[in-house]
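Quick illustration, no need to memorize.
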Amino acid sequence: MEVKQLDDTLSVRGQIAPAEVAEAAAMGFRSIICNRPDGEQPHQPDAEAIAAAAGAAGMEFCHIPIVPGQITPEKIAAFEAALKDLPGPILAYCRTGTRSAMLWGLHKAPELGADGAMQAAADAGCDIAQARPLIEQRAS
C-alpha cells in the first residue's frame, strides 16, 4: 500500500478499500481519518464500511468529511482534535489524499509557517498549492 508520510504522526493516501485496512494496521497505523464525504463517487466504499474494517483490525476511526473547496474552520478544528486524540500513527484519506494533506498543512502552518508547511507537503509528494491562501492566513 502506497502512502505519503507527512510527519511521524500522519500519512495520507487516496481512497482505501475495506480489504486494505488490515494491511494499514500491519504497517503500524493505529487510526484512520476519512476526509471523504460518502457518495462522492459511485461505488466508493462508505465511511461505515471502513470504520467496521478498522474496528475489526483493532484501529480507531474518525470521519471528518470535506467537500472539495470547502475546508472550514470547524473542519480544521475537528481534524486537529482528531490528531490530538487518536492514537498514532494515523492514516488519513480522501479521494486522492490532497484534502487530507491540505488539512495537515493548515494544522502545521502556525508552527512551520506557510512556506514550511507547503514545502513539507511537497517533500512528501503532496501538492497543496490550492490551499495556500488559507495556509498563509493560518500562519500569520
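The longest helix spans residues 98-123.
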